[in-house]
Write a structure and sequence with these properties.
The complex is a heterodimer of chains A (301) and B (417). Chain A has 301 residues and is an alpha/beta fold. Chain A is built from eight helices and eleven strands. The chains are: A alpha/beta (301), B alpha+beta (417). Strand 1 of chain A pairs antiparallel with strand 7 of chain B. Chain A: One of its GO terms (molecular function) is sulfate adenylyltransferase (ATP) activity.
């Protein structure tokens, strides 16, 4: 009897497409959370593979902190135009103006944690029952324990002790009114898998992922992009360096790494040899050992 | 390069987390910032070295209690293969979590503490491996450093386990003597056990044959979604999207749609912009049929000459996963791939004492209980027996009062009464 096996990227892709189609089949009002980062860009590509030549059965939703890299927003708008799909934007600035959240002050102020309120409001406003996200289990130890279909209560909270068993490839998306499910189709991908997939599929990315010259300051051992959103003082020395970003979040919480990698092959080589994890460049995870677990319990992505 | 998903069965006391930590550490899969976080942690081994076990404890409660509660997934790769580890808890009160982690694994590592040999827990874990039909079993006999790397101890344990494996009908069992703490035979071959001429655990994981066998007879694809663009130029486009569960489909194959029983022929196959002539288990595809027949989500396309079972009264092995016990008076939802139907449990046939493997009569069925039930569904189910085709032989039960997944089901027989 002859045998065969799927290449690992084909297997990961097929699993993700299966999950996206389950979302389409099981939910009334799903949405795809799009951050402009490489993981959500990968999700968009997978959605094309799952549903084309039909339309996506969900809009793209961007939670805009207002502290974005300009390159990301340009990329987003061009991509939406190419896809011909619907984009919904939830603005953190609106949540601030409505007095629902208060802008942080001080040197390390960031809008990262404020996003949760805007996200939950956007979900409630549009009545989304499932939100597809690009989180991966290799990113962080709390994420390593999260289900692919992760049920959130009406306050958006994740309860790690009440997770449903997730068996075989059968996904239980049944929820009560007011609850919603966060769905993570690329849970089983690693950072390197995403990059290898982007290379194989020839996917266009925002330019900040590739090495470029930028004004940066060093803070807590991390390189931060100098921008009006960063509270700088006399101690901060602005230097111009060749850098790139490994993850893309709010400008005030995403650190750059020094790099000469301006081609995707160079990036893959760099990551393969890297001794620092991707979220090592995220200040938001450094607060405590359980930083991500606590934010997820609060309704974060 | 292909992917191997495996799970580990054992408890912290057997050195399970240390074994996983060792695999990750010795393959260079732990990065500097993670290592730094480890070094800052208060938990150390008695000799001051890093406690590799904390690498796998993801939740605050787990770190506090020093146990694994939920399944954690870990990823690493070597030049030969990519691996996904489902790190599952070993205690009996977390049996459901082990079943969860094991359900998608192709290989199980069962840990035995060399000082204790085959114990109650070993029987329980091996029973679950047998129940879930895991193809490959590695018995890692750990803490060999604590028994002076004794060949006699190793042989005594393998002899005893071989009897258990025969009783449980485990087919491929490989024994490896290891010390996760010291690193013997995990990644590197041990210098302390020259009497052992087998491979290290990693070497075995890299080379074990886990390819799928091609089998056209078992062609099964549940329809997840019907792609209908309804634009002017694609007015008649009607694609059935789903993941091939098992077997293969070729263009011009005759297929039957269940439960309706209508048949047609595959006109073309699409994977986005590709038009493959044939597709296999595991691939997410879109099929087009020559005839316009009524097909919707939950239907399944199968090889017309090799139909699955089609029944409403089924005997199934069950693992109960909810704190509310099984209730024969209520109607559950049964989800079999993309198909959901109402279901009632008509009879508890027996319950298994998973420490002794004894079958017992039972009137109640609680969290972590395992046994056999007779289940009655509202709609006919197109399924295969779990032993013949795992991918189409399993289902979950959902309690519609709570929406929780309350049971894992493995179909064993069509009831003939």
């Amino acid at each position: 009897m002859s045998k065969y096996n799927l290449d690992y990227l084909d297997e990961l892709e097929a699993e993700a497409i299966h999950i996206l189609r389950e979302v389409a089949g099981q939910f009334e009002k799903p949405a795809l959370l799009f951050s402009g980062g490489k993981d959500s860009i990968t999700l968009v590509r997978l959605a094309e593979k799952a549903f084309r030549p039909g339309k996506f059965p969900f809009p793209l939703v961007h939670i805009d902190t207002g502290h974005n890299f300009e390159e990301t927003i340009n990329y987003r708008d061009k991509m939406v135009e190419r896809l011909g799909e619907k984009l919904i934007v939830g603005h953190v600035q609106e949540s601030i103006d409505q007095g629902k959240v208060v802008e942080q002050t001080g040197k390390n102020a960031s809008r990262n944690s404020l996003q949760t309120v805007t996200l939950l409001d956007t979900i409630a406003k549009h009545g989304f029952d499932a939100c597809i996200g690009g989180a991966r289990r290799d990113e962080e130890k709390a994420r390593a324990k999260e289900r692919i279909f992760s049920v959130r209560d009406e306050f958006g909270q994740w309860d790690p002790k009440r997770q449903r068993p997730e068996l075989w490839n059968i996904y239980n998306g049944k929820i009560h009114k007011g609850e919603n499910v966060r769905v993570f189709p690329i849970s089983n991908w690693t950072e390197l898998d995403v990059w290898n997939y982007i290379k194989r599929e020839n996917i266009d990315l925002p330019s900040i992922y590739f090495a470029h010259r930028r004004d940066v300051i060093t803070r807590n051992g991390q390189l931060m992009a100098a921008s009006p959103f960063l509270n700088m003082d006399a101690d901060d020395i602005v230097e111009n360096k060749m850098v790139r970003f490994r993850t893309v979040g709010d400008m005030s919480c995403t650190a750059a790494v020094e790099s000469e990698a301006d081609q995707i092959e160079d990036i893959i080589r760099e990551i393969s040899a890297s001794k620092i994890s991707e979220r090592g460049a995220r200040l938001d995870d450094k607060v405590s050992e359980a930083a991500m677990e606590d934010r997820k319990k609060g309704g974060y992505f | 390069m292909n992917l191997l998903k495996f799970f580990t069965a054992g408890s912290v006391d057997d050195g399970k987390s240390t074994l996983i930590g060792r695999l990750l550490y010795d393959t260079g899969s732990i990065l500097a910032d993670q290592l730094e976080a480890l070094q800052q942690s208060n938990r150390k081994n008695d000799d001051g070295t890093i406690d590799l076990a904390i690498l796998t404890d993801g939740l605050r409660a787990e770190r506090e209690q020093g146990i694994t509660i939920d399944v954690a997934y870990k990823y690493f790769q070597t030049e030969k293969r990519k691996f996904i580890i489902a790190d599952t808890p070993g205690h009996i009160q977390y049996t459901r979590n082990m079943v969860t982690g094991a359900s998608t694994a192709k290989l199980a590592i069962i840990l035995i503490d060399a000082r204790n040999g085959v114990v109650e827990q070993t029987i329980r874990h091996s029973y679950l491996v047998s129940l879930l039909g895991i193809e490959h079993v590695v018995v890692a006999i750990n803490k060999m450093d604590m028994v002076d790397y004794s060949e006699t101890v190793f042989n005594a344990i393998t002899d005893k386990y071989t009897l258990l494996a025969a009783e449980l009908d485990l087919k491929e069992v490989t024994f490896i003597p290891v010390s996760a703490l010291k690193g013997d035979n995990i990644v590197h071959e041990s210098q302390n056990m020259v009497w052992y001429d087998g491979r290290s655990l990693l070497h075995f994981l890299e080379t074990v044959d886990v390819d799928d066998k091609l089998s056209y007879n078992l062609a099964r694809m549940p329809v997840q979604w019907v792609v209908r663009p309804q634009t002017d130029e694609l007015h008649d486009y009607r694609g059935y999207a789903g993941r091939v569960l098992s077997g293969s489909f070729k263009v011009n194959d005759k297929v039957t749609v269940l439960p309706s029983g209508n048949s047609s022929v595959i006109d073309r196959i699409e994977i986005f912009d590709l038009r493959p002539e044939e597709v296999h288990a595991g691939q997410s595809v879109t099929l087009h049929l020559k005839d316009n027949i009524d097909i919707s989500r939950g239907d399944v396309l199968v090889n017309a000459d090799h139909l699955p079972q089609n029944a409403k009264l089924i005997e199934a092995d069950v693992c109960w996963m909810d704190s509310r016990p099984l209730d024969e008076s209520i109607t559950y939802l049964l989800q079999h791939n993309s198909k959901v139907t109402k279901a009632k449990i008509s009879e508890i046939i027996y319950k298994v004492d998973i420490n002794t493997l004894e079958k017992q009569n039972a009137t109640d069925f609680k969290l972590n209980d395992i046994g056999r039930i007779l289940i009655k569904t509202a709609d006919e189910l197109a399924f295969d027996l779990y032993t013949e085709n795992k991918a189409n032989g399993a289902a979950i039960l959902i309690d519609s009062r709570t929406n929780l997944t309350v049971a894992a089901l493995m179909f064993r027989a069509v009831a003939d009464y």
